Amino acid sequence: MSAVLVVNSGSSSIKYQLVEMSDESVLASGLIERIGESSGHSRHTTPSGEWEKDVPVPDHDAGFRVMIDAFEAHGPSFDEHPLGAVGHRVVHGGKRFFEATVVDHLVEINIEDLSDLAPLHNPANLSGIRAARKTFPDVPQVAVFDTAFHQTLPPAAYTYAIDKSLADANRVRRYGFHGTSYKYVSGATAEYLGRPVDELKLIVLHLGNGASACAIDGGRSVETSMGMTPLEGLVMGTRSGDIDPAVLFHLHRKTDASFSELDGLLNKRSGLLGLAGRSDMRDVIAGADSGEAEAQLAFDVYTHRIRGYVGEYLAQLGSVDAIVFTAGVGENSAPVRAAALAGLAGLGIEVDPARNEERSRQARTISPEGARVAVLVVPTDEELEIARQSLAAVSA
Ligand SMILES: Nc1ncnc2c1ncn2[C@@H]1O[C@H](COP(=O)(O)OP(=O)(O)O)[C@@H](O)[C@H]1O
Ligand SMILES: CC(=O)OP(=O)(O)O
Ligand SMILES: [Mg+2]
């Protein structure tokens, strides 16, 4: 059996994991941050230790080199764990990619061509693919798309109500993201509940730095909150989520802000950061607990928005077996979970306060015994899902 190196290249970071596929054990994981800034930072973790250092990382090529150096210095060695594939997270696969795909020249051109739909993400994902190919020329590179799981969205869910021919000509529609996480979590939820995934109606809330919601009917995504880009939907760390598009016209006229400034405003300086000056939910909650009105409002806007989506998805699905919290905030923040589902007892949706406070890395139930709707916390593992899909793609 072989190992898979999973690479998640963001605009300013590379996260990686080396997974031994025979038992799905993690042999190493790490993070290179602040790529392109004056000083970068790297962390490499294996079962025998953790190493951190500050290093200059001018670009993704250099970042990749830092990762390879860490493997050479601290192990494990790729000679002992030969790579069967390098699996890359690619955020935007547009309409073209339904599943994980081995990257050849044509696939690479397609990913590049989709960059105008995901200018923050796809170029970084491509740099990762190119750097990995230079380092491992004989190992297949596999692209695993955030959008692929949402190819099942019905037209009524993915169509924006604007001029149809203009939208079609410019690929303007909803695509959805975090699909790799939704695929993993829906499978893990079915396993935890001991029921086949095709019998389940789920609402999954992926609340990380980026946050989105997904209605999953029988293992198929039928509605999701992110749209053409990962900006639509829930309130996030630095992204606004849903907003009246006329706000942009108004701000453009009133302040002369350019489109790229407005893009930066909604993607990088909004959400929790815009409302409370901090993008990390832990800091927002600490602020709210110490009586800061802005932090309390940020928390309230964040959880109010989630509650609205839960109601909408319940209506779209007709009924729901489980509501599932996942990702950094969803897995760790009891106050967010409690507030997001507060007041829904009439719909059979309740959170048990003691169960909600329990800490564990395992899937668990936080609704009271006998509740009509199961409320669960199910940790996501996008890296493992990418590794599994990458191996399947090269074995196909
Ligand atoms: N105990 C906690 N309470 C609230 N939020 C938390 C907690 N632990 C982590 N988080 C949040 O999780 C976020 C990161 O989630 P994660 O899914 O790792 O994000 P990403 O993969 O998008 O970088 C952080 O921004 C932080 O706000
Ligand atoms: C698509 C997206 O929003 O990704 P992330 O949560 O990693 O920012
Ligand atoms: Mg994430």
TrEMBL record:
ATP binds at K15, H206, L207, G208, N209, G210, D280, M281, R282, G328, V329, G330, E331, N332. It is found in: Cytoplasm. The active site is at D146. Keywords: ATP-binding, Cytoplasm, Kinase, Magnesium, Metal-binding, Nucleotide-binding, Transferase. The keyword Cell membrane does not apply. InterPro entries: Ac/propionate_kinase, Aliphatic_acid_kin_short-chain, Aliphatic_acid_kinase_CS, ATPase_NBD. Pathway: Metabolic intermediate biosynthesis; acetyl-CoA biosynthesis; acetyl-CoA from acetate: step 1/2. GO terms for biological process: acetate metabolic process; acetyl-CoA biosynthetic process. Mg(2+) binds at N8, E382. The record marks H178, R239 as: Transition state stabilizer. Its main location: cytoplasm. Substrate binds at R89. GO terms for cellular component: cytoplasm. GO terms for molecular function: acetate kinase activity; ATP binding; magnesium ion binding. Its EC number is 2.7.2.1. Its cofactor is Mg(2+); Mn(2+). Mg(2+). Can also accept Mn(2+). It catalyses: acetate + ATP = acetyl phosphate + ADP. It is an enzyme of class 2 (transferase). Belongs to the acetokinase family. Catalyzes the formation of acetyl phosphate from acetate and ATP. Can also catalyze the reverse reaction. Homodimer. This is Acetate kinase. It comes from Cnuibacter physcomitrellae.
